Amino acid sequence: MVSPASPSRDRILARVRAAVDGAPEAPGPARTYRDTHTPEDGRVDLLAENLADYRALVHRSDEAGLPALVARLLAEHGSGSVAVPPGLPEPWLAGTDVTRVPDAPGTTAAELDAVDSVVTGCAVAIAETGTIVLDAGPDQGRRRITLVPDHHICVVRAPEQVVGGVPQAMPRLDPTRPLTWISGPSATSDIELDRVEGVHGPRTLEVILVEG
Predict the structure, then answer these.
(1) Residue ranges of the LUD domain (predicted)?
(2) Tell me, what's the pLDDT at 23?
(3) Which domains does the chain have, with CATH numbers?
(4) In 7-138, at which residue ranges do the beta strands (DSSP E only) sit?
(5) 120 SS3 class
(6) What is the pLDDT of residue 211?
(7) Cα–Cα dist 145/109, whole Å
(8) Secondary structure class of 211 (helix, strand, coil)
(9) 3-state secondary structure of 62
(10) Considering only CA atoms, which of 52, 126, 115 is closest in space to residue 84?
(11) What is the pLDDT of residue 4?
(12) What is the rounded (10 degree) CA torsion for 52, 55, 59, 60?
């Protein structure tokens, strides 16, 4: 192994610099490929299909019906408490009286583990992969509140937050933010292919597509 300060390393790097001196700049990557294979009017249906294929529970609603739907899902799950991001729209939880646990910096993992559910928005949803992307925005909160509670309700505004393919999602995302890509509930399989859910994230993922 050549040490960082060895004469051999310096000679090799000098030869490389001499060889490329005056060479033209490398061309940029060609981005002539298609960024999606899904027509715009079919994205929401494809997203719902792929989310369900990953065993997420998919619901559809309009803005007026969202509070009642969120309240019903929390009640059906038996939730007595819900983690709440700081910028979650107040009307989303208007139909429920469960205990709200704010996304506070001092909240411990053990305290979050005692919370029954979390309700968030999202940054973008990708139809072709059935993926929800969170970027710790105001309506999503810190990453940990979407990884520790066992039940996650995620609201997606359709169609404005739904894109066809991954290349269409990337320009909407800031790579300096903590991005969480979710394709269905957390799960893994052992060598016998026995599926276990809730390993490193929520056991149950419910996605509400708010249209219109």
Answers:
(1) 104-210
(2) 85
(3) 39-211 (3.40.50.10420)
(4) 57-61, 81-84, 99-102, 117-120, 124-126, 131-134
(5) strand
(6) 95
(7) 9
(8) strand
(9) coil
(10) 115
(11) 57
(12) -20
Partners of 182 in the beta sheet?
132
For residue 49, the Cα-to-chain-centroid distance in whole angstroms is 17
**Tokens read off for 48:** 């719902």
Contact (Cβ atoms closer than 8 angstroms) between residue 127 and residue 43: yes
User: Which of 141, 124, 16 shows the shortest CA–CA distance to 88?
Assistant: 141
Residue 31 has pLDDT above 80, yes or no: no
Q: Where are the beta strands (DSSP E) in 72-179?
A: 81-84, 99-102, 117-120, 124-126, 131-134, 151-158, 162-163
Residue 106 φ/ψ region, left for φ over 0, alpha for ψ in the -120 to 50 degree band, beta for the rest:
alpha
pTM: 0.82
Nearest alpha carbon to residue 129 among 159, 158, 168, 160: 168
Residue 169 is which amino acid? A
Would you state the pLDDT for residue 156? 98
% the chain with pLDDT above 90: 75
Q: How many CA atoms lie within 13 A of 144 on its CB side?
A: 13
Q: What are phi and psi of 19, to 5 degrees?
A: -70, -35
Locate 150 and state its tokens.
């066992």
Residue type, 53: D
Amino acid at residue number 174: D
Token digits for 202? 């929520």
CA separation, residue 200 to residues 66, 150, 188, 203, 212 (Å): 28, 10, 9, 9, 34
In degrees and rounded to multiples of 5, residue 112 shows phi and psi of -70, -35
In the three-class reduction of DSSP (H, G, I as helix; E, B as strand; rest coil), residue 51 is classed as helix
